[in-house]
Every structure is written in structure tokens, then in C-alpha cells.
Amino acid sequence: MALSKFNLFHYQLNAVSCFLNRQLPKSARCLSTVLVPGEASGPSVKTTVPGPKSRQMIADLDKIQFAGSVFYFTDYKNSLGNYVVDADGNSILDVFSQISSLPLGYNHPDMHKVVQDPDNQIAFINRPALGIFPAQGWPEKLTNSLLSVAPKGHTQVNTMACGSCSNENAFKAAFMWYRNKQRGGASISDEENSSCLVNRAPGSTPFTIMSFKGSFHGQTLGCLTTTHSRSIFKLDFPALDWPIASFPRYKYPLEDHVKENEAEDRRCLAEVEEQFEIYNKAGKFVAGVVVEPIQAEGGDVHASPEFFQQLQRIIKKNGAALILDEVQTGGGATGKYWCHEHFNLPDPADFVTFSKKMLTGGFYSLPEFRPQQGLKIFNTWMGDPSKVLLLEKVVQVVKRDNLLKLVELSGKKLMDGLKDLSNRFPQHMKNNVRGIGTFCAFDLTSPQKRDEAFFRLQQHGVQSGPCGEQTIRLRPFLVFQPKHADIFLDVLEKVLKEIQTP
Amino acid sequence: MALSKFNLFHYQLNAVSCFLNRQLPKSARCLSTVLVPGEASGPSVKTTVPGPKSRQMIADLDKIQFAGSVFYFTDYKNSLGNYVVDADGNSILDVFSQISSLPLGYNHPDMHKVVQDPDNQIAFINRPALGIFPAQGWPEKLTNSLLSVAPKGHTQVNTMACGSCSNENAFKAAFMWYRNKQRGGASISDEENSSCLVNRAPGSTPFTIMSFKGSFHGQTLGCLTTTHSRSIFKLDFPALDWPIASFPRYKYPLEDHVKENEAEDRRCLAEVEEQFEIYNKAGKFVAGVVVEPIQAEGGDVHASPEFFQQLQRIIKKNGAALILDEVQTGGGATGKYWCHEHFNLPDPADFVTFSKKMLTGGFYSLPEFRPQQGLKIFNTWMGDPSKVLLLEKVVQVVKRDNLLKLVELSGKKLMDGLKDLSNRFPQHMKNNVRGIGTFCAFDLTSPQKRDEAFFRLQQHGVQSGPCGEQTIRLRPFLVFQPKHADIFLDVLEKVLKEIQTP
User: Fold this and answer.
1) CB contact under 8 A, B380 and A126
2) In a domain, A131, yes or no
3) Looking at A104-147, which runs of residues are DSSP E strands?
4) Is residue A99 located within the same domain as residue A160?
5) DSSP of A435-464, one letter per residue?
């Protein structure tokens, strides 16, 4: 279905907005600037989504691997900025950004420059075993990219290939640190060295990592033990016996439920204390607590800064490490590089893990968590320098184009619009619109309605992301502007008017 | 130290060899052809390795992360073919190939072409969430690369980012398959769905993966449970209670110990049977057995084709899956794409996992191991299409330049030379030289001598790889020619004459 009237309207709106924006202060220029030249002015949908070409390709792929999770095939060559073009030529406003992983949208001109540079091409084709043979200049590259945006108090960083490996290795670093504290300077015994080879104590430790109900930390077996968002991820797989506590589930609107939500914080924190006591007493010592600043896959579940402040105090009191999993929240979508910077924690987090929008996986850790020996936080590739070259440029563009400010402005527009719609369509939308920056989400009033809304958004040329039971999450690119928010909100309004599910 | 006399000798040797090779049949042209134009004619070492510049960079990196495992910093721009150039300008014959991970050597001209192609650059900068939004043409790319060299009987492949994730996901696929067999078509209960969310039965399974003493399968917690090569990898980390059997340890020379080694096979296979019985009886059902065709990190430990044939029969009899970990052995270094193709197995392996030289991680699996639902063998990126573009070209070059034949010829040269040296230097080298293709190794007579030999090889401009207790492994590139084998063997002879360790 063509959206030509719709497009025309937005073209006009853009023209007016460009004129008005000349009056804006410098900090808000990102509102008006064309951030990705040549970008479409609105979605344009010609077929159902997925269309016949995508459906054929899904059938082709399914001969090679299970292809049941594919939405559609994509024409990356013709995708640009905030718009993804699918194999059937539909141009779709993408507010899901490859599961929140592509920072600057499609074919950003500065990303092209990185890969066109012959010096950089060396890194794209000579992938090193980074832990043994890094390229000269590698410390500077880390300094210019990951360390230039490090969370407060962090000077140490390790790179990894993906989010799961980042969390797994942060867990391992926490275990080593905890064991070294237990040893108190004693040297490693022969028995430790031999017993660990066959998975036995004392060399193999009974240590645990505490996690929260509803969380998602990845899909390798260690990470999966700490993941509790949806049974599909976990069913049929073995898991370790590690402690689990409740994560706050607030009543909305927040301002009307201050007391209840404070009580909810206390309830969950008491569970954390209790789990520490149970597991430590049983000798299954809790070396770390892993937590998302916002539970993303679990349905964009937010907790208060006070919850995280208290959580850090409890963890410290129990001699464990705080592992903040910023794989999805990190990289700028909350208007800061790290979501937990909104929490005003008393101390820096012990670990901050990342991947997705940072393009490389890895983790920051405080100096006391440095390994004492080589090869322990290790694997063949230890990440990929070509991703760090891309990240270095992303960091420059974010600064140059003032994109964190843009996230804040576009986020406000999104939040205001979503709240307005939730007031106007209470039969479909719950009144728990929530978000920081453009990291926003809203619930439909039933899982079936969520599925319908998600599908209808796609048919109208908007790619959103489902999560939790009945949530739609927005994960736009860092080049998502208020004009894109307007388009999204208009389409959502249309969808809310169309919903048939009772 | 300059090796100019040495270089001159090899230059002359090359000239003679080029002349002679005009008479060679087409299949052996790879012997004489200049595979990487402009490649150095021999190593050239000016400083100690690592030199002062590398040492300064190691100190710089150590401010950011533990840098104790770094050998030296590398000048990838000036590295070419089989020669790596370090930050101090030393040109080093690299027979370790970034822990066996770079297939065609440094800056191969065909690899440059891949990244210079503007169409390919799209894939380098628009990394998709492959499980949801693959690029149009993706099934064809998989067909032209991974499936074109698939092990016999394999038509199904999944991509992953690294070797550990490949093994973890193969384990998961085996668990799902095993559980579905148990269910016998019954549907999934509510109790299964709710219990798995908190890591409890029946949704979380008590299933196990059997592994072998001495093995290495990666360093995430699931993989680490199956890794038993060295305590450094495992100490201080928790592990699951999974079965472990012995892997054959043969007496060399093989031809003089046929009976003992057959008995060793039987001993180990009996342990496999026994572990199946113990764990299955205890309800800790063994869903799969993971094994390397050659235990690489563990010291290049070989087992006979008969061992693997019997192992497959036992696994099948016990209703489990055979997971062949070809992360290090795969990709051509044995003269075939998959080492297990040398074993003449009665049936295709259920899973073959890969990474390293394949540039992308992933696994092949037989159709019966396909997941029944989406999102279970899943993560954000599911690998990286830009690596598959590079692999597609590697596969073409391997075929065009007849590199598997070259591996066979260079491997024979290496093996003959190593055996000769082990006969001439029995005070330093054990008589257990072993290898398939260029995937070769030899033991020194003590760990200390291994360390000295490794160090002296480096000082003379040869980068080898240590593994096991007292082993040096060779993992040259696929463009390693007999002339490079000559250079390596001459340097090794010099080193064996120099060794001081008693």
C-alpha cells in the first residue's frame, strides 16, 4: 500500500521545520540538519511485508537452516539512514535498528569512508589473534574509541566478539577476583591445578552469579543460566544452580504509585540480601550480580535509580562484584553512552559489559579485576579490530553531530507522543509508556493486540521490535530525529485506529 | 641478527626450483608459482623478538588491559604472504598463522579485492541481525562458501561469531534433539515452560555432553566444562558435572607399537561406554560427545581412524550425537577441508563445528538436528556476512591455486624434515613427530627445552606455536610452500644445535 499522501505531508512538514530550525541554538541544530543526505522522506510500502520476493528467499534459506525467525530479506545497498529497504522494494522506517545494534543507520557516509580507506582495509582482511599479536597502534585505537566514552572511573577494557562472550568473560573475571580474595595471597596448590582439569573442587569453584527474574544476558550456557526473560530461550537446556532475585515491577503512572513502588524496591532488594545469605551459607559463594539497567528483552522493565544505588551497596557489603550488562542499553540510545550514568551510583560499577551499538563486544572493569595471569580472559580473536575502527568513527560522528543531544530531543518527542496516544487509546495501550532517550517502550493491553499492532506497523512501513509478553520497544538509530518521531507516531495512531483484536 | 647469507642461499634455491618446476605436472604448479607476489625470500631479524618498540607498546597496552600474553606488536601493513613484520621491522616466517586462523597469509591480493569492491563494502558497514533481517542473496553466499566445502552428507549450516559460540550452540541443538526424542511427540507442558525460567526441572534438563581428557573446546563456561587441556584455562571457574573419558595416548613410532596402540584405543573406548552407562543410569543423560579430530591445544594428540569409527558406533548405540570440533583442524590445513574426512567414518558426523580459518564461526548439522522453533539457536548477529564474503573468495583461491594439493606436498616435506631432525637430535626432539598435511607437531624432550626452542625459533625469525606440555605445533598458511618448509627446517636445525637446556 502506497503512503503517498502521507509522504507529501511529511515533505511539507520537513520544509517548514527546516525554515524554523534556522532560529535554533547550535545545540539543537541536529534537529534540522540533514544527517544522512538522500534519506527517504517517509516510508513507502508496495507489497505486504514480507513480500513475495522475501517469502521466496525465506523458503530458499530454509533449505539450508531453520529460517522461522526471519522477518524479511533486506536490500542493504538501497537502505539509507533510518530507512531499510526490503527485497520487495518496500522502504521501511526502522526503529528496531537490527535489534538495537547498528548505531548510525544504513550506509552512513562516514562508515563508508572507514572501509574505503586503504589503511583501514588492512585491518578488515588481516584479523589478528589480538591477545598475542595486536597491531601497532592498537592501544591508541582503544583509547580513541572505547576508552574515550568509558563509564566514569573506568580505564580498563577488554574486547570480545559478541555480547554473550562479553558477559561470560566478565563472569570469569569476577570468579578469579573472588577466588584470589579467598586465597588471601596463598599460592595455587597442585591439587587446585589438577582437580580443575576434571571439573572438580578445589580447582573448579562452586561460585555463582546472581541474576534477576525477567533478565536477558545472552544464549551461551553460562549466560543462559542468568537469563530468565522467556522460556523459548531456555527450555531443554541444562542450567547451573545460581541465585535468582526479583526485579522491580512498578505500577504506572509512576507519580501516582510512589509508595507502592518504593515498597517494590524494598521487596526485591530484600530478596537479593536473602539470596546472598542462602547461597553464601551453602558455600555456593556469590561472586557477582549481573543486571541490566533496563530489562530489555524481558519487556523494557525499568527500575529506579534508588534501586540500583541500594543494590550496589548490598553487593559491596557481600563482597561481590556488580556486573552491569549494557549490551542493549549502552552506546547512546538513552542520551548518555551508558544508561547507568542516569542512576548516580555511589561508586563506579565493577564491570560494564557491551556489544551491539558499540560494534565490538567487550567489558570495562575496575583495575582490581585485572587477571593475574594470561590466557584466562582469552580466545583466538578477542574481538575484531575492524569493528573498533568503525566504532572510532561512530564516536567522532556522535560528538560532531551532537547525537546524544538529538537522542534526548527525539526521545522527548517520542515519549510525549506515546503518552498522548496511550491516553487517547486506553482500550489498546496500557498507561505504562516508559523510556530514557529514544530507548522507549509501550505495552498493548494483551499479547494478541501487541502482535497485531506489530504486524500492522510493519504493513504501514514501520519496523518496531516486540519484547516481553505484550510490549513494543523502540530502538531507533542515533540519527533518529524528531521528524522521524512524527512519522512513527502518525503511523502508530493509524494502527491503533485499525486494531481489530477485541 | 641478520640472516643475509641464509637469505641468499634461499634466493638461489628458489631460482633453481623455479627452473625445475617448469617440468612439473599441472597439479604441482603450486610448488613453483609465486602465490603471493612480492613476498620476502626469507626471514630477516634485526632486534631481539620482541624488540624495543614492541616492548614499549606492550607496556602501553598493559595500562589498558592485562597484556601478559602478547608476544609482539605487528605491522600488518608491511606483512605479506607467509611473513609477518613486527613493530621493530623484523620479518618473521609465520607458521602459527594467528593461532591457525588466517587462511591465505597476510595481505593476500584476492582478499584486498574483496574489501575494495564497493558492493562488498555494504556488508562491512551494515552488519545485520542475520536471524531476522538477512541480506538478499544470503542463501547463495552460504551455498558458494560454507556449503560448497561442507563435509560429506551435510546440507545444513548455521553461522556464529566465534568458535566458542559455535560449540555452545551445537551443544544446545543436541540437547533439543535429545529432549524431543524423549518427548516422543508429546507437546511441551506449562510446567516445562515455567520451571526452565528459574533453572529447574523439568524445563531445565539434566543433560550432559561427554568430552575427553586433554581436549580444548573454547573458554565460555559451557565449552570450558568440556575443555581439559591446561589448568590455566579452567582454574577458579565453576564447571558442570559432565562425563569425561580418556583420549588415546599412543606410543611412537606408531609402526613399532601397533598392538599397544590398539589396546589404548580399546581402553579409551571402554571408558566412553562406561561414562555413558554411569551418566545415563544417573539420569544425567549424555546428549552428545564432543571431540577434536586432533587434540590441538592439548599438544597435537592424534588418534586412529579406527578409534573415531568405533567412537561413532558407540555414540550412535547410546542415542547421542557426535559433535566433531573442527575449529582448529578444519579449513584445509590437513589437505582436506575437514580433518575427519581422513577417518572414513561409517556415517556423516552429526555436527561439525568450525571457526578460525573459515573466518566465520558456525556449525554444520544433519537435518534431524534442525530446531523446531525460532530464537533457540540465536543471538543478535549470528555471525557476520562480511566474513562469509571473505570466505567465499578463500574457497575460490584454494581451488584455483590448488592449495589443498600444496598442503599435502608441503606437509610431506615438513614431516620428512622433522623426522630426519628427530633422528639426528634425539637429545632434544622426541621421536613422536606427527601430522596430517601441514598440521604438524613435534615434542621436545622437556618443557624447558620446548620453551627454549620456541624462543630461539622466534629470535631466528620463525613464529611457531607452543601447545601441550612440551610440544611445538606448526599451523602454516595454506600458501605455505615447500620452499618455506626448507627455510623452517634449516632454522629449526640451527636452533637444535644451539639449545643449552640440559
Assistant:
1) no
2) no
3) none
4) no
5) EETTEEEEEBSSHHHHHHHHHHHHHTTEE-
- Domain membership flag for residue B440: no
Task: Supply φ then ψ for residue B494, to 5 degrees.
Answer: -55, -45
CB spacing of B129 vs A218 below 8 angstroms: no
Chain B 214-253, CB below 8 Å of chain A: which residues?
Answer: 218-222, 225, 228, 230-242, 244
Are A100 and A169 contained in the same domain? no
Last residue of a domain, one of A383, A414, A443: A383
Nearest chain A residue to B168, by CA: A220
Q: List the grid coordinates of A474.
A: 523502540
pLDDT tens for each residue of A8-23: 333 333 433 433 344 4
Our answer to whether residue B205 is catalytic in this structure is no
Name the residue facing A164 among B108, B165, B197 (closest C-beta): B165
d(CA B95, CA B101): 11
* Amino acid identity, position B307: F
- Domain final position from A325, A355, A383: A383
* B101/A381 CB distance under 8 A: yes
Chain centroid to CA B227: 15
For residue B380, indicate whether it is catalytic.
yes
Shared domain for A224 and A368, answered yes or no, is: yes
Cβ–Cβ under 8 Å, residues B488 and B93? yes
Complex prediction ipTM: 0.94
Q: Which of B53, B54, B63, B65 to mutate to test the interface with A (most CBs of A within 10 A)?
A: B65
CATH for B229: 3.40.640.10
- A345 and A414 in a common domain: no
Cross-strand pairs, A323: A290, A351
CB within 8 Å: B199 and A241: yes
Report how many domains make up chain B. 1
B356 catalytic residue (yes or no):
yes
Place of cell 524431543: B180
Domain that holds residue A27: 4-110+400-498
A456 & A482 share domain: yes
A371 and A429 part of one domain: no
Question: H/E/C letters for each residue in B410-466?
Answer: HHHHHHHHHHHHHHHCCCCECCCCEEECCEEEEEECCHHHHHHHHHHHHHCCEECEE
Q: Residue B214's closest chain A neighbor by CA?
A: A197
Contact A311, A272 (CB under 8 A): yes
Q: How far is CA B361 from the centre of its chain?
A: 11
Distance separating alpha carbons of residues B324 and A291, to the nearest angstrom: 35
- Cβ contact, residue pair B175, A236, below 8 Å: yes
> Does any CB of chain B come closer than 8 Å to the CB of residue A66?
yes
* A10 and A45 share one domain: yes
pLDDT in tens, A59-87: 999 999 999 999 999 999 999 999 999 99
Q: Which of A82, A235, A373, A469 to mutate to test the interface with B (most CBs of B within 10 A)?
A: A235
* Residue-wise pLDDT tens digits, B217-237: 999 999 999 999 999 999 999
Angle (nearest 5°) at CA B416 between B413 and B420: 135
Q: Which regions of chain A are under pLDDT 70?
A: 1-30, 32
Chosen for mutation from B144, B197, B226, B295 (greatest number of chain A CBs closer than 10 Å) is: B197
Is residue A91 within a helix (H) or strand (E), and if so which, with residue range?
Answer: strand A91-94
Q: Is B398:B383 a contact under the CB 8 Å cutoff?
A: no
Q: Which residues of chain B have pLDDT under 50?
A: 1-23
Alpha carbons A330 and A479: distance in angstroms, whole number: 16
Shortest CA distance from B71: residue in chain A:
A132
Find out whether A424 and A195 touch, Cβ atoms under 8 Å. Answer: no
- Active-site residues of A: which are they? 216, 325, 356, 380
Cα A227 to chain centroid distance, Å, stands at: 15
| B109 vs A: CB within 8 A | no
Identity (one letter) of the amino acid at B290?
V
Q: Within a domain: residue B26? A: no
Residue B181 lies in a domain: yes
Same domain, A331 and A302: yes
